[in-house]
Design goal:
By secondary structure, the protein is α+β, with helices and mostly antiparallel strands. The protein has two domains: about 1-60, 2-Layer Sandwich (Phosphorylase Kinase, domain 1); about 65-225, Alpha-Beta Complex (Aminoglycoside 3'-phosphotransferase, Chain: A, domain 2). It has helices at about 30-40, 70-75, 80-95, 95-100, 100-105, 150-165, 175-180, 185-205, 210-225, and strands spanning about 1-5, 10-15, 20, 50-55, 60, 65-70, 120, 130, 140, 150. The strands form three sheets. Strands 1-2-3-5-4 form a five-stranded antiparallel β-sheet, covered by helices on one side. The chain has a three-stranded antiparallel β-sheet with strand order 6-8-9. A two-stranded antiparallel ribbon has the order 7-10. Helix 3 runs antiparallel to helix 6, helix 6 crosses helix 8 (about 185-205) and helix 8 (about 185-205) packs antiparallel against helix 9. The termini are far apart.
Length: about 230
């Protein structure tokens, strides 16, 4: 099996028929269990890879044909990709979290925000979408290890962060993403959510890998300097 591109934290390899993903970093077993659960429960709800079983330290899934959204953005299709990103995120957020994350939802403290919780992907963006390069239809949403019940703002802000951080020349096409989703929260709340996620990932890296700590310190600094 050869290493697959766009795998930044874990070791992901494939041979054209099967993909094996082994989890690295803090809470690896928890993240593996969460992704296993999501692939099982979302199988007939959303386009996700078919779960084949466990391997030592990871999961086996069926290979899904498609091109990563990041590659299509770099090939000049940013508007089409981001519009599709928005439409797919709307579909994800319309899934009832109680049906796919009942065990986790039961642990969320009751409060005013409870009824507004949605299924949050947790690392949503063109980096975790496979698309048909001709029609831009989504063939798979991958990397569900961070999925949880939460505020839809988390995914909206993080997809924007991915574009701003890795495809800065295409920031002007973010309108297509929000049009596809059907809602564009205010910049201040989106920016606050981006900063919060960067801080959480910086905390997650502490005690694991010094280079990752420095990376997220740098990214947090860049994000803090964005003014819209």
């Amino acid at each position: 099996m050869r290493p697959l591109p766009h795998s930044y934290t874990n070791d992901t390899r494939g041979d054209g028929a099967v993909v094996v993903k082994r989890y690295d970093g803090p809470q690896a077993a928890t993240r593996r269990a969460r992704e296993r659960l999501m692939l099982h429960r979302l199988r007939h709800r959303l386009p996700v890879p078919r779960l084949l079983g466990d391997v030592d330290g990871g999961l086996r899934t069926a290979f899904v044909a498609g091109v990563h959204g990041q590659e299509l953005i770099e090939a000049g299709h940013a508007e089409a990709v981001l519009r599709t990103c928005g439409r797919m995120l709307r579909r994800i957020h319309e899934v009832d979290p109680a049906e796919v994350l009942a065990e986790v939802l039961a642990e969320v403290p009751a409060g005013p925000a409870g009824p507004d919780l949605v299924l949050v992907h947790g690392d949503y963006g063109p980096n975790n979408l496979l698309l048909d390069p001709r029609t831009f239809a989504v063939t798979a949403v991958v990397d569900w290890e961070w999925a949880h019940p939460g505020d839809p703002l988390e995914d909206l802000a993080w997809c924007e962060w991915i574009v701003r951080m890795h495809h800065g020349e295409h920031v002007g096409t973010l309108g297509a993403f929000f049009d596809g989703y059907g809602h564009r929260p205010a910049w201040t709340v989106r920016h606050d959510a981006m900063l919060a996620r960067c801080r959480s990932l910086l905390s997650w890296c502490q005690g694991w890998a010094d280079d990752r700590v420095r990376q997220w310190e740098h990214r947090l600094d860049i994000t803090a300097r964005w003014t819209k």
